[in-house]
Write a structure and sequence with these properties.
23 strands; 820 residues; 6-stranded mixed β-sheet; alpha/beta; flat
């Protein structure tokens, strides 16, 4: 990509704003060095990374790279035998932890974010390095006593000698033969040795070694003869401690050196992820959208176009530029005026005319800068549905090319740059010219501009030109593949509106402006009379077209505002109805659960009554009639409360986008069965399918479909009742246990008794091929919970277990899944 053009279009300023959103120096360096790609595959992959990062930060706003640091220099230093300071070793540890957390995050969400997961899969995990650093250094940056046996011994002896030394010196301070000669009753240090402050007048009264004196000379800091041996021993132990700490750190850095290359890869991968996060944040700040990217068609193929539109000869390069609501990313988002840059399928050149400071140059820069951003993986500040071709190069001649050093005038500077562009441009490039042919005689400049433009069009080069020359307006009408455009000017306020109007050339408002500014009417009329009549008529016609266009745009804006208001009111109403539906479903579900619990009690009472009657040899007909009614009621209350949509139901597409909620009707892909969501977690849900409850991942669920309710016809109820009776008889007839329920309640039991029941229950659940079971152990002190989970961990029939969801009892419940 042309470096001069990057600077001309202010691309580095965009990268600077991107770098501000990076979390550490590694990604910041990547951002500042980001270069637009010229390959479609890379550009699309980068765009996909940004899109996924935006979805990730939207659903998990707290996602960051943690405490990662750019530790590449430190890793390389360890290869040279350098012993890193403790803060830098902790940076290595924190970066490893950040990489581990990112890897775990994308392992859990790989189906949602496949592109980012591919990047995260490159994160290496040097085995044991985090533990090795943690074992040696605390989070506060201290080396642990247990970092080595020798360090532990040295520090123990150091504390003992330290206490003895201070104890002896304290006795000296309190000695009546010494204390009168002291300046203060305190112990201090000089050059690593403990000393006491002695008055200079009594220098010979205390046998000691002088280490220092105060600035006034009135106080001497002396080491008494009686503590020299202890001071020596203490100092030697300090040196031993320092040497042992250095040896430990050197050993730790040698271990880091063995993983230096993976650590460098890890930092580069984290930088790639953080750059994607930064792009996502920048896109959110710009209210940007992902553009649709197109390749240039193969040689001889026809560029995409509407079937009823003819081609502009055989010269169209196949480029596509459709940027609706485009906004310059460096302008104030609150004041910038969006423009529509739409080239129809027959057009590959645009000539923009209009007054000075009207926005012609900004329009050119917007096109070029957005093309660069699209090829850098940045979302564009445009309306959804915008699309653009991936160009192999972009050239721009914008601004004053005057050079004092090279003795070039403005015109010469422009021509020199244009010559370079003409030599390097080809059909796969985009060329932007501001004030083409300016800086010289207007007549010659217009002729030169027309000739250059013809040369570019004949070579099938996509071109945008801003100009004042009226001759180029006529050129656009005569040449296929070229369209006029203009920047709008409000003659009422005498200010530009900065809107770009494609299809109409700019209108000269010189006479109108002069009249409004107070130029005498006689002079204005004389000037008007001096213009060709045909030109005046064309100007009046253009003015009328512009006025009608303004009226149409205002009407369309009013209609759009009305539609937006209606949509907002509709969405607000749907949200309120959703809230009411949540409350309705919660009340009904609570009542259903209460009824189910009461029916279970009644069923147990019926079973007890049946046993009593059987022992008394009494007839069971009355009890059986009650049991049948209880089973009928059970069938009714077992159906979960379904979510009902209001009359103003969202469209199918909106329903698919809406997050799953309790009570939603869903289809389980793996079974092809319909059910209702009864429990909902972050990644999993529990679905009731008929009388069976199934726990599955959210990705396995598809919203929609009519869920068949449980059979309630007499024949179906009778069949189900017979099946239950047969199961009970079989369970009684044979010695093996019946199929266990979905839950085992161990609350209130001793650990030994609970574990015995747990093992039996797990065996029966495994034999029954249950999809999962719940163990209710309660929270309490956690002793029973820990014992249950330790037993499950050792059981070969258990594939995994996890804490229950909030609706299942949270930490008081463990959900067990069996080996298949």
């Amino acid at each position: 990509m042309d470096e001069k053009t990057l600077a001309t279009l202010e691309y580095p300023k965009v990268l600077a704003r991107l770098a501000e959103r990076c979390a550490f120096s590694g990604s910041e360096k990547l951002a500042r060095g980001l270069h637009p790609t010229i390959t479609l595959e890379t550009a699309r992959r980068w765009q996909a990374e940004t899109t996924e990062a935006r979805r990730l930060l939207e659903t998990r706003p707290n996602t960051t790279i943690g405490g990662a640091h750019d530790i590449r220099q430190q890793a390389e230093a360890t290869l040279r035998g350098v012993v890193l300071p403790i803060p830098e070793i902790l940076d290595v540890k924190n970066t490893l932890i950040a990489a581990r957390e990112l890897a775990r995050l994308f392992e859990r969400t790989q189906e949602q974010f496949p592109v980012l997961t591919e990047i995260a899969s490159r994160l290496p995990q040097p085995p044991g390095l985090i533990d090795a650093i943690t074992k040696v250094i605390s989070d506060r940056g201290d080396i642990h006593d247990h970092a080595s046996p020798r360090l532990s011994t040295i520090r123990r002896e150091l504390r003992i000698v330290h206490d003895r030394l201070l104890s002896r010196m304290q006795r000296m301070l309190n000695d009546p033969d010494v204390s009168p000669y002291l300046q203060d009753n305190l112990i201090t240090t000089r050059d690593g040795r403990y000393v006491i402050p002695l008055r200079a007048d009594f220098k010979g009264k205390v046998k000691s070694i002088v280490h220092d004196q105060s600035s006034s000379g009135a106080t001497l800091f002396v080491e008494p003869i009686g503590v020299i041996d202890l001071n020596n021993e203490y100092r030697q132990l300090q040196l031993d401690e320092r040497d042992e700490e250095h040896r430990i750190l050197a050993e730790l850095c040698a271990k880091i050196a063995t993983h230096a290359e993976p650590l460098i890869w890890m930092v580069e991968t984290i930088a790639d992820l953080d750059l994607a996060f930064a792009k996502a944040k920048y896109a959110e700040d710009l209210a940007a959208t992902e553009p649709r990217l197109h390749p240039f068609p193969r040689m001889g193929s026809v560029p995409p176009r509407e079937p009823d539109q003819p081609r502009a000869g055989e010269l169209h390069p196949g480029s596509i530029i459709r940027l609706e609501g485009a906004r310059h990313p460096l302008l104030n988002p609150n004041t910038v005026v969006p423009i529509d840059i739409l080239l129809d399928p027959n057009t590959y050149a645009l000539i923009i005319t209009g007054p000075n400071t009207g926005g012609k140059t900004v329009s050119l820069k917007t096109v070029g800068l957005l093309a660069l951003m699209a090829q850098s993986g940045l979302h564009l500040p445009v309306d959804p549905g915008s699309e653009i071709t991936v160009f192999e190069n972009i050239f721009a001649d914008i601004g004053d090319e005057q050079s004092i050093e090279q003795s070039l005038s403005t015109f010469s500077g422009h021509i020199t740059n244009i010559i370079r562009i003409l030599e390097e441009a080809d059909p796969h490039t985009l060329v932007l010219f501001d004030e083409l042919g300016s800086g010289t005689d207007p007549q010659e400049g217009a002729a030169l501009a027309s000739s250059i433009l013809t040369h570019l069009l004949d070579r099938s080069i996509t071109t945008f030109v801003a100009t004042h020359y009226p001759e180029l307006k006529t050129y656009a009408l005569q040449r296929s593949g070229v369209v006029n455009a203009s920047v709008e000017f409000d003659v009422e306020t005498l200010r530009p509106t900065y809107r770009l109007i494609i299809g109409l050339p700019g209108v000269s408002n010189a006479l109108t402006i002069a009249r409004r500014l107070g130029l005498p009417e006689k002079i204005v009329n004389a000037a008007r009379a001096g213009l060709p009549q045909q030109e005046l008529q064309a100007a009046d016609l253009l003015s009328e077209i512009h006025q009608q266009r303004d009226l149409l745009r205002k009407t369309r804006a009013d209609a759009e505002k009305a539609r937006t208001d209606v949509t907002r009111l509709r969405d607000d109403l749907l949200k309120r109805l959703e809230t009411l539906e949540d409350e309705r479903r919660e009340v009904l579900e609570k009542a259903r659960r209460q009824a189910a619990a009461r029916l279970e009690e009644v069923e147990e009472e019926v079973r007890e009554l049946r046993r009593q009657l059987a022992r008394a040899r009494q007839p069971l007909e009355i009890v059986e009639e009650v049991a049948q009614k209880v089973e009928t009621l059970e069938d009714q209350v077992s159906v979960p409360t379904e979510r009902e949509f209001p009359t103003a139901v969202p469209s199918p597409a909106e329903q698919v986008r809406r997050p799953l909620k309790l009570g939603d009707k869903v289809r389980l892909r793996s079974l092809g069965a319909l059910g209702v969501i009864t429990t909902l977690g972050e990644d999993e849900a529990e679905v009731q399918i008929g009388m069976m409850r199934v726990r599955t991942r959210l990705s396995e669920l598809v919203r929609g479909g009519d869920v068949e309710s449980s059979p309630t016809s007499p024949e179906q109820t009778k069949t189900r009742r017979k099946k239950k009776v047969v199961e009970r008889e079989l369970a009684t007839a044979v010695s093996q246990p019946a199929v266990p329920g979905i839950e085992l309640d161990l609350r209130g039991q001793r650990v030994e008794e609970a574990l015995e029941k747990l093992n039996d229950y797990v065996d029966r659940g495994y034999l029954a091929q249950a999809p999962f079971v719940r163990i209710i152990h309660g929270k309490g002190t956690g002793k029973l919970r820990d014992a249950v989970r330790e037993t499950l961990r050792k059981n070969p029939k258990v594939s995994k277990f996890e804490t229950g969801l909030d609706g299942e009892g949270g930490d008081g419940v463990t959900v067990v899944k069996f080996v298949e």
